[in-house]
Design a protein that fits this description.
CATH topology: Rossmann fold
Number of domains: 1
Strand content: 15-25%
Number of helices: 7
Radius of gyration: 15 Å
Shape: globular
Helix content: 40-55%
Largest sheet: 5 strands, parallel
CATH superfamily: Methylglyoxal synthase-like domain
Length: 148
């Protein structure tokens, strides 16, 4: 078990064609979001700081490793929620990084929203604004299969 605290570390990521959607969603949810610690990839983070007027820790831009930096933070338990507005109709050169980020979110059992409707459900959940006891997956059988 792991406790996700009341004040969460939230990663916000958006592909170019989805940045406008994320900015609109974030502006609508400004009061809720600014109560938490916000993290984002490069350009998205800069835009969010301007839109929300609250601090956003900016990682590198996605194609320059930002997705991987957020993935590492997820695997270390430092990111509690991922809001990732990705463009399903536009293939990008860093698609393997995107897939890896989503895979890590699933592996470490963190809430993920990949579109506006899911983000609305997530942020409006009573669990969003209070501590949450998260079940950590048991990967020991997988990890132990290589030990002799």
């Amino acid at each position: 078990m792991m406790i996700i605290p009341e004040i969460k570390n939230i990663a916000l990521v958006a592909h170019d064609n989805k940045k406008k959607d994320l900015m609109e969603w974030a502006a609508f949810n400004k009061d809720s979001l600014c109560r938490h610690h916000l993290f984002a990839t490069g350009t998205t983070g800069t835009l969010l700081q301007q839109e929300l007027g609250c601090p956003v820790h900016c990682y590198n831009s996605g194609p320059f490793g930002g997705d991987q930096q957020i993935g590492a933070a997820i695997s270390e338990g430092k990111i509690h929620v991922l809001i990732f507005f990705w463009d399903p109709l536009n293939q990008l050169p860093h698609d393997p990084d995107v897939k890896a980020l989503l895979r890590l979110a699933a592996v470490w059992n963190i809430p993920v929203a990949c579109n506006r409707a899911t983000a609305d459900f997530l942020i409006s959940s009573p669990l969003f604004s209070r501590p949450y006891e998260k079940i950590l997956p048991d990967y020991s059988p997988y990890l132990n299969r290589f030990k002799k």
